[in-house]
Write a structure and sequence with these properties.
The chain is an all-alpha fold. It has helices at 2-6, 15-26, 34-47, 54-66, 71-84.
């Protein structure tokens, strides 16, 4: 019985909003902005080992192909982007919060 439960895909709590973001990123054929690159990297991290959301994972892979990037290149670019400053601008009243999980 436990093996049946282990093979079942789960639904991520952010799946609906992430699906909309993936759809927007799929519309970009070339020259993504720093923000778009960091959003793709964030989603790749979020769904890298998630047992489910297969359509999102496939969409993220298609985006990498469209932008002619490997995951390693994406992460290298976004590390550089983050080292240059804040990609995500937040109002001063909002406390900093990571959204990686």
């Amino acid at each position: 019985m436990s093996s049946i439960l282990e093979n079942k895909d789960q639904q991520h709590p952010q799946e609906k909003s992430d699906r909309a973001l993936v759809d927007r990123l799929l519309e970009i054929k070339a020259d993504p902005t720093d923000y778009q690159l960091t959003e793709l990297a964030r989603l790749r991290i979020r769904y890298s080992r998630f047992p489910g959301a297969r359509e999102i994972q496939q969409g993220l892979e298609r985006i990498l192909q469209q932008w002619n990037l490997t995951e390693e290149q994406l992460f290298e670019l976004t590390r550089h982007i983050h080292s240059q400053g804040h990609v995500y601008k937040q109002p001063k009243s909002v406390e900093s919060q990571d959204d990686w999980t």
